[in-house]
Design brief:
This protein has 1 helix and 2 strands; from the N terminus they run ββα. The protein has one helix spanning about 25-45; strands spanning about 15-20, 20-25. The longest helix is centred in the C-terminal third of the chain and has 21 residues, at about 25-45. The structure holds zinc ion. Zinc ion (ZN) binds near residues 25 and 28.
Amino acid sequence: MGEGPRCSVCGARKPLAKIGGKYYCYECGSKLVREHILSLLKELEKKGLVRQA
Ligand SMILES: [Zn+2]
């Protein structure tokens, strides 16, 4: 049998998510998404689109 997709970060089998054409397991995927959202929020803050109360 051929090898299935693997997490592109840690190499774990049975990745759960495909983000940007790469596979990620739950751990790496959630970490990536969190970082992505944080950087996105910072960008928006810089542009003044998000205002802090
Ligand atoms: Zn992983």
